[in-house]
Amino acid sequence: MAEWFQDNGLLLGLALLDGLSSAGLIFLVAVGLNLVFGVLRIINVAHGSLYAIGAYSAASIGIFLSGLGLPDWAAVPTLILSAALVGAILGPLIERFLLRRIYAQEEVVQLLVTFALFMILEDVQKLIWGVQPIHHDTAMRALGTIDVPFGADFIPFTNYQLFVLPGIAIVTLVGLALFLRRTLTGRVIVAVTTDREAASAMGIDAAKIFLLTFTFGAMLAALGGALSSPTAALVPGIGAQTIVLSFAVVATAGLGQIEGAALTSLMMGLGRSIAVYFEPELEVVVPYIIMVLVLLVRPQGLFGVIETRRV
Amino acid sequence: MTASLTRREALAAGFGTVLLPATLSAQPAAKPAEFKIGVTTFLSGPASVFGVPSRKACEMLVDQINAAGGIAGVPLRATFVDEAPGTDHLVGEFRRLVQSEGVHAMFQSISSGSCLACTPLSRELQKLTILWDCGTQRIFEENRWEYAFRTQGYGTPEILAPLLYLLKKKPDFRTVAVINQDYAWGRDSWELWKAGMDALKPGVRVVAEMFPRFGSTDFSTEITRLLALRPDVILSTSWGGELVTFVRQATERRLHERSTFVLPVAEASLPTLGRSMPEGHIIGTRGDHWNNHPAPANPQLFNEFVTAYRTRFNEWPIYPCHHMAQAIWALKAGVEKAVAAKSGGWPSDLEMANAFRGLTFPTPTSTITLREDGQGLEDQIVGLSSFNDRFPFSVPKEMIQFTGAQVSAPVGQKSTDWLKTLKPDMIASSGRSIG
Amino acid sequence: MRRYEPILALVLAAAMITAAIMAPWLRFVLTIALAKGIAVVGILLLLRAGQVSFGHALYVAFGAYVVAFLAPRLNDAVLLLAAAAVGAGILGLLIGLFVTRYRQIFFGMLNLAMSMVFYSLLEKLYHITHGSDGIRVEVMPVAGQALDRVAYEWSIFGIALALAFTVGLLVRLYLSSPMGEALAGIKTRETRLEFMGVPARGVLLSAYVMSAMLGGIGGAIIAMTSRHVTPLLAYWTSSGELVFIAILGGAGGVLGPFLGAAAFELVRIYAAASFADAWQLILGSVLLLVILFAPGGLWGMAARLLGKGGTR
After folding, report:
1. Which of A250, C171, C280, C312 could be joined to A119 by an S-S link, Cβ 3.0–4.6 Å?
2. Which class in CATH covers the domain with range B156-285+379-433?
3. Using an 8 Å Cβ cutoff, are C223 and C64 in contact?
4. ipTM of the complex model
5. pLDDT tens per residue, range B214-251
6. How many domains does chain C have?
7. Are strands B367-370 and B360-362 parallel, antiparallel or unpaired?
8. Which of B212, B218, B214, B204 is nearest to B260 (CA)?
9. Is A19 a member of any domain?
10. Cross-chain Cβ contact C243/A309 below 8 Å
11. C232 vs B1, B15, B86: nearest CB
């Protein structure tokens, strides 16, 4: 074992760095999904579409503003603003006109409404942005790279990948935690997450909280997409690929638990990057293995609260 | 459906095809009022980056051919089917087009899985089927088909040509790593490369074999590992958005300064990459139809095609457009040959198909011969990425042309077996420098 | 409404046979629809217990691959169907032992995870499965009879139809049996079941194994009909499709899945034929409209047309 570390310790260090940035992106997408699920109890399959639309919009807005002479340093703030814009427009639209009509229905019906929405938006994206890969990487390029020493060698990492992605993920995590614990609205959201019936019995305006939470979740999905857009070429189908991993994060984390989502994302991000170094064929299944193992030990998810059984 | 249909007509036509049984396919030998082709291609999902341009090219060529009087005096009409929903849907659509819409020829498909699923239908339904883009070597090496022909090259030449190019240009490499998409083409192409490399240059060490999930949007971990390993050569047969993502993430971190990339399917992604494609790496196009081909066989036709496509769609044609065009030109040549043989009468499905065996048809860049087994021999041109004033994106320089016959497995031999028999002297004897 | 179900089933079957005679390509589409209908009956069983499996495509794909792998050795459609059912049942038992400990989202997502792992394996084990190229299934004898292609396709269509009837009948009986009632109990008040001494997990597990077998049978028929299997059968969107069909058809009766499957396939073909590059948009819109304006799905619509409200 010690010998293995001697040989591979440096690689493990690299895997940690990669895992962190990968975890950051996983977290940003999954935490919105988890928040929405915690409050609305809807598994929003269209979260993947919001991710994709967030990515496409950020790229389009970025390309447009660059054409107008936007300085490079503004690229990252532009990403964040365009994500907020997408969420603020699409979130209320979807909640008001679609989800609100089906809150009374069965869970499976709610899930399917978002699945239908996902299918529709998949084609809408194609109609708007076409099928050729779109990429706009100013944010990644402008920030440059940093050389990380690796034995006698060195490995260049992009600052965007090494600092911006995990940084924004951490800021989001801390900000969310403070918001949920310190503000009244935040506490109401937590109350609805933990015990919906009791919360509404106490006269909480569920309609407002649902609208707010969903919009917020949509913004987070769009933010995940927007932040991935500088490093990834956008093509049809990216939403479907992304959302399925977020499902696993939500179930592993525990319902509505943002710290759970953070820890799960970290485990999955690290697990995947370690797999790439030592057993690449396992990379795809690592998240699911983690999920199964966690649920074997903690059936309610990492940070999940055991719900009182109704009689 | 052409764009000129109103929505109501389209709806009516749609209902008609669902509800009404076939009556059209009963008279194969009468000269049809229009020659219908059914085209399967990706219209959604990641591979629509190929599918949609190919559809555009098809529509453009159908218009052009019809404006010039059609094929053997019969106007063409194309119906498109999306490959993305999966095999059970696609096989059903293939049957519907043949049995209900009465198409005269099928054009299929981009995905090798789709081709493997649908080619047997050509025999069952006895319908001329042109494989217009898929690359799997299994189709014609594991079976014989009376009605199916492939009007372009396939995996073996498309991998062997870049390998030979690498061995000619940079023969000193000692280590290689591969990063391919995790699906059949990614695995197949690596197997072909490995078999060829072990025969032509034994002793090369493979330092990493990575097959990230199909549709990945982040390769930073893989890139870190490649940076640490410093392989002399990195092979990637990825395409579309994934190739763009990989190249962007890799060049930003200067991986291209440590290793030589070999990217056999690069061409379709180069317009998107623009100036951010690094120079001096090996790029291929699954054929010989580079936009900067220095000496096309028919320069006028080549320029007309490229210009017409650019004018109509405001983008450069990429290789799937050329593959679609090859299929249509082959169709024109084959059908007109069959009609001529009937001295004016209309050939049956079998007579039509027989006209394609051994057919040599011209393309703007060269000619393609459909071998006895149905496989087309398409030339391959490989070069080094470079920039010039004519194109806002990377194009090859120091191009070497390999004739289709040189780099394809002979009829009746399996590619991996044949590749193992190659001798190193092939490196010097194959290929012709074309500037 | 329950009284009308057998008659409606016969009408639907007669319509399917007529369509299959009139248009050979419809015979193919309807066989696929019947196969998916059978698999969706399995979804329906679990829905009765209030559980949504978002990974049931696993069993469909497993059944299909059992056929693809065993066909060279066990060359008979009837034997292969049995093998696929038993194989999927055993897999369902193994996975079920684990996933039936969970409810709601955990149940759904664990099933999803299992199907995605299976999907990845189909791609990863390239040298065995040929990855996304898939495996071809040849025309095979049916019950010892070597058949030509057309007779074979008719036989598979007939088998699918007969199985659909058998499955529908058995599941109807099951759902009205005490076991079926207990299943519905899991949805409403699981704890009460246990107070009554009914082992809820055992009830759910047996339903799960049954639904896995139905998935395996559906998958086997799909493999015998499309005669080419690819990993896409196990992808999560395929699972979504099965749940889609269940809700489109309506969860009220066993006829719902078949109505839903036939409607799903026909709408998809119609959409693909009219708007090849926007079929998802149409399919999604149809589903939305059904959910918003026709609760209870097609079966619920049929029930209202017949003037009887209750579908249970």
Report:
1. C280
2. alpha beta
3. yes
4. 0.90
5. 888 889 999 999 999 999 999 999 998 899 999 999 99
6. 1
7. antiparallel
8. B204
9. no
10. no
11. B86
